[in-house]
Design a protein that fits this description.
Radius of gyration: 23 Å
CATH topology of the largest domain: Rossmann fold
Number of helices: 10
Oligomer: single chain
Strand order of the largest sheet: 6-7-8-3-9-10
Protein name: ABC-type multidrug transport system, ATPase component
CATH class of the largest domain: Alpha Beta
GO molecular function: ATP binding; ATP hydrolysis activity
Keywords: ATP-binding, Nucleotide-binding, Transport
Number of domains: 2
InterPro entries: AAA+_ATPase (IPR003593), ABC_transporter-like_ATP-bd (IPR003439), ABC_transporter-like_CS (IPR017871), ABC_Transporter_VariousFunc (IPR051782), DrrA1/2-like_C (IPR025302), P-loop_NTPase (IPR027417)
Structural class: alpha/beta
Amino acid sequence: MTQPVLEIHHLQKHFGRFQALKDITFTVNSGEVFGFIGPNGAGKSTTIRTLLGLIRATGGHATIFGQDVWRDNVAIHQRLAYVPGDVYLWPNLTGGETIDLLLKLNGTAHTAHTDELIKRFGLDPTKKARTYSKGNRQKVALIAAFSQDADFYIFDEPTSGLDPLNERLFQEAVLHLKQQGKAVLLSSHILSEVERMCDRIAIIREGTIIETGSLAEMRHLTRTEITVTTEQPLAAADLPGVHSFQPGRHPHEYQFAVEAQQLASVMATLTAHGIVALQSTPPTLEDLFMHYYGAGKE
């Protein structure tokens, strides 16, 4: 079996008495886009800074390409591309000069692919970096990253400041990396972006990974929304285990939410009442996220 590109086992990080990371464990494989989600302060960026060798873990262990992220960080960075969520550039260099410098620092040359990326992202490479908006600074870092032939790409809130068109271009570029067999770790607060792109997801809460898996594997944690029209009238008492049962706008139309384990019995009851129309909406990543972070969740 192929070794994962990234392996993290019970990673911990203390800042004095504050424990930023308590228990981080997950892997990222080649040809996989792995989503890393959680609110601000949950520990996402601290985890990534540890993986980049910028800070040293207090406990646990993490390797990239089988190499220790702290001891072997120089060798690891030769095969890695990284884009942070807030890019700072040399103010007196133009965007083009900055891209070339970033590529040169990583042993990569400016190519026709770089020019294509500059055109696609709509960046004016002749302007000084100090004149760039946040979105344009992000574009510079993304163009430099996508110009590299790295084996592992780490994106920490990379589309912050980008407009919807450039967000889509980013998503297309990441999916192209996946097709090439590259490994991608994507930390994002845009849940629709993660849901659209990622093969597996890890949810972090207060420095601990609380759930890992594909969205399909996690759907059992949340409820499916059902809108149904039946031949015979329904009452909430007919459907034990459903939530938020209420009549719809039309005769014999009803709306409710149902847990995954109750779906079979609910469908049997609906069939017995004669289904005229049925619409089901499976739980989304946002539903799953709110399962852990919504009001009342401890």
